[in-house]
Amino acid sequence: MKHVSVVQHTQSEWLGLLEDHLEGRRIRFSYFRPFTSGGSLPDPDVLGDGLILIGGGQWGTASAPLLPTLDKEISLARTCLMLEKPIIGIGLGAQILALAADGTTESAPLTFRVEHAATVHGGALGGFAPISFPSVSYMRDTFTPPAYATTIAEAPDGRPLLFQIGTNAFGFAGHPGIKLAMIEDLIMEFEDAPENIGEQLNELRALKLEIEDALVPIMTGLIQATGWMKQDA
Q: Is 233 within a domain?
């Protein structure tokens, strides 16, 4: 049975709907919470079969408040890339993945976006990437993947919303398994909050079924690319 290490950066944001897809395929996962008392990051030597870096609410990679464990997580993600271990970065996690792969991040205010990603790479995720899918992000700062990365999906204004590095590393600007309660909890967890919260929450409520439906092919493609269903030799 495969085992994946999951780094959580806030109490509020977790795997969400991704948990059901992993459990349904008998893929085990363990949460690491470095922000808690006594919490830590996974040891590079015992990462298991891959790494998932989840979003981080108010934490930034280019502007304050900077993620306290940023340098260590960049190093951890870089180790995964060197060892060709699968990585999925979500929100803040996608920023960390971009930096680990020699991309960049830029300062930007905390923003809550509810938008649709348009797939621009037809063969992405083994051909399972939906033509269009919801992208819901709650994060500070923005990322630019390295020039050698493949952009899988873009926002209407051309921002990369999903990129791929190598064969098994993926960065999502939005959380593909987001739940409404996660955003509501993020808003309450931190004093800093983005504008137009009420309007965006209403849009998110309306997308509940579309998010669930889009996640089916997305996870099918991710599981195939990461090899998390393959038996060890």
A: no
Residue 31 placed within a domain: yes
Report in angstroms the alpha-carbon separations of 48 from 15, 52, 169.
Answer: 17, 11, 15
Max intra-chain CA distance, the chain = 51
Look up the domain containing 54 and give its range: 3-226
The CATH number of whichever domain residue 48 belongs to comes to 3.40.50.880
pLDDT tens, position by position, 91-141: 999 999 999 999 999 999 999 999 999 999 978 999 999 999 999 999 999
> Side chain identity at 76, as an amino acid letter?
L
H or E stretch at 72: helix 70-83
List the structure tokens of 225. Answer: 């690319």
Q: How far apart are the first and last CA of the chain?
A: 12
User: What single-letter amino acid sits at 22?
Assistant: L
pTM over 0.90: yes
Q: What is the DSSP string of 192-219?
A: ---S-HHHHHHHHHHTHHHHHHHHHHHH
What is the rounded distance in angstroms from the CA atom of residue 170 to the CA atom of residue 65? 25
For residue 147, the tally of other CB atoms under 10 A from its CB is 7
